[in-house]
Design goal:
single chain, mainly alpha, 3-stranded antiparallel sheet, two-stranded antiparallel ribbon, 7 helices, about 55% helix, about 10% strand, elongated, binds zinc ion
């Protein structure tokens, strides 16, 4: 769990990189600055700056150029930063949804892994607000993420099925029928109707 010190330290790193955009920066330069600035402002020791930098890179805020070299590109990082839930927001979303998947109802008790998901996806401009967040189990989250791909797959199979039917091509017809039955079996993309 993150504590307040971690959050302040992270903010300080962000401050440094925002002052130094689009430049390849080696670890020591960042570390020297954050350690001394942190000491100046709080009187405390900045613990493990390397780990904090790595975390910023993992979260997509920084681009890793080479071992120990990072770059902050505002055009890429800024977007990411706005769209991602903070640790506090994630906790609030999970709590509001009573630590259960809003889709299938499975939760901590059943031992499933829970994720916080954007209701309106990031790609469609969905924001990182608690209102736009929902709790999904890993299975439902996976299905949701793949919905777009499975949707186009199903539509393509239906088109193939209809063409094969006209051409009386039994082999392709059987192939499409089997695959479309799998969609039905797993109740995937039920809103796309397959007319037999
Ligand atoms: Zn679920």
């Amino acid at each position: 769990m993150k504590n307040n010190n971690d959050l302040v330290q992270k903010d300080l790193l962000i401050e440094f990189f925002k002052k130094n955009p689009n430049r390849d920066i080696k670890h020591p330069e960042v570390v020297d600055w954050v350690v001394s600035t942190y000491k100046e402002r709080t009187g405390k020791v900045f613990r493990d700056p390397d780990r904090a930098i790595r975390q910023l890179a993992q979260s997509g805020f920084l681009i890793k150029i080479a071992k120990g070299v990072y770059k902050y590109d505002p055009s890429k990082a800024y977007k990411r930063e706005l769209e991602d839930f903070t640790a506090a927001q994630k906790e609030e979303i999970l709590k509001r949804d009573q630590y259960k998947c809003v889709q299938c109802g499975m939760g901590k008790r059943e031992g499933v892994e829970l994720h916080t998901d954007h209701i309106i996806p990031k790609d469609f401009g969905g924001e990182a607000t608690v209102e736009n967040g929902q709790t999904l189990c890993s299975r439902c989250n996976f299905l949701k993420k793949n919905l777009k791909q499975t949707e186009s797959g199903k539509k393509m199979l239906i088109r193939m099925y209809q063409a094969a039917k006209k051409q009386k091509n039994k082999e392709i017809l059987d192939f499409c029928t089997d695959l479309l039955r799998i969609y039905e079996k797993y109740k995937v993309n039920g809103h796309i109707v397959w007319k037999k």
